[in-house]
Amino acid sequence: MPLLEVNDLQVEFRTHDAAVRAVNGVSFTLEKGETLGIVGESGSGKSQSVLAMLGLLASNGRASGRAMYRGENLIGMTNRAMNRIRGNRLSMIFQDPMSSLNPYLTIERQMTEVLELHRNVTRREAKKRAISMLEAVRIPEAAHRIGQYPHELSGGMRQRVMIAMALLCEPEVLFADEPTTALDVTVQAQILQLLRNLQHDFGTSIVLITHDLGVVAGLCEKVMVMYGGRVMEQCDANTLFAKPSHPYTIGLLRALPRLDQDGGELTGIPGNPPNMAHPPAGCPFHERCADASDECAENAPALQSVDGTHWLRACHRPVAAMKTRYQETSHV
């Protein structure tokens, strides 16, 4: 049985103008020790999918569907029940550590509070454990740093603090929302290596939200590509990079620079993501897709198996046609 099994997840926000369907029918499974990358442009529904599972949607948001974790449905779970799991068995690294950390509390207080709540330990024991975790995420002089406030740390250190906080209770599932955003490439590489090491040490499963396919290539076993609140393609990472079959996935890969290519032109995806308050009919990507047909504008394609296993995609065009186009036009 998968550690986490999500079926037909829907997220809708009520606004003054209209109901906005941010997530439409997302499904996936996550095994113990596995890493799933959720990829897509801003507004594709990546973060809202995870926030719905953790009960952290905005007050005007509503989620439906199933997110089964150890026999319990996270969707619709009471706050009291969720508080026993969230931060304990399920943890999250938020995108911006400066806004996620409380500027009025020291790192020590923010970390020890987690352990006091979920592990029922003394303040002294919690501090010892917190310092040990800061050392595990390679923060120098951890015993001194723990007494500082967030603004006294660099961006890379604040991100490491967020990772340490998320791992204090040794969660089974770690959700990471753009954990390397706004970090320079050196620090980014260090954070990714840190996640790999900690996953190996603790056996933690990771759901990584990102728009960076390079990050996915370095960390993830499985990938789910989202656009307009829907899953466009879903497969293992090797298949995604070797045999992409959805036009949106192909567009993302063609816009990805490669160190093993001498020159070559990068090709962007024309147009803009859809307005989810007034989504287009049919496939949400058809207005930007060079391969769209009349059927694409009328009917939204369902996820379908490509090779009879778990490689899925939502597209009306034949797989062979997409493979040929990718091989002829991509420098990747």
Explained architecture:
The chain has helices at about 45-55, 80-85, 95-100, 105-120, 125-135, 140-145, 155-165, 185-200, 215-220, 235-240, 245-255, 295-300, 320-330, and strands at about 5-15, 20-30, 35-40, 60-70, 70-75, 90-95, 175, 205-210, 220-225, 230-235, 305, 310-315. By secondary structure, the chain is of the alpha/beta class. The chain folds into two domains: about 5-220, 3-Layer(aba) Sandwich (Rossmann fold), CATH 3.40.50.300; about 225-330, no CATH class. The strands form two sheets. It has an eight-stranded mixed beta sheet, with helices on both faces. Helix 5 packs across helix 7. It is globular. One of its GO terms (cellular component) is plasma membrane.
CATH class of the largest domain: Alpha Beta
Uncertain spans: none
Strand elements, count: 12
Structural class: alpha/beta
Corresponding CATH architecture of the largest domain: 3-Layer(aba) Sandwich
Give the percentage of residues in beta strands: 15-25%
Helical amount among residues, as a percent range?
25-40%
Q: Radius of gyration in whole Å, from Cα?
A: 21 Å
The general outline is globular
SSE pattern, N- to C-terminal: EEEHEEHEHHHHHEHEHEEHHHEEH
InterPro entries: AAA+_ATPase, ABC_Ni/Peptide_Import, ABC_transporter-like_ATP-bd, ABC_transporter-like_CS, Oligopep_ABC_C, P-loop_NTPase
Main location: membrane
Domain ABC transporter: 4-253
Membrane topology: Peripheral membrane protein
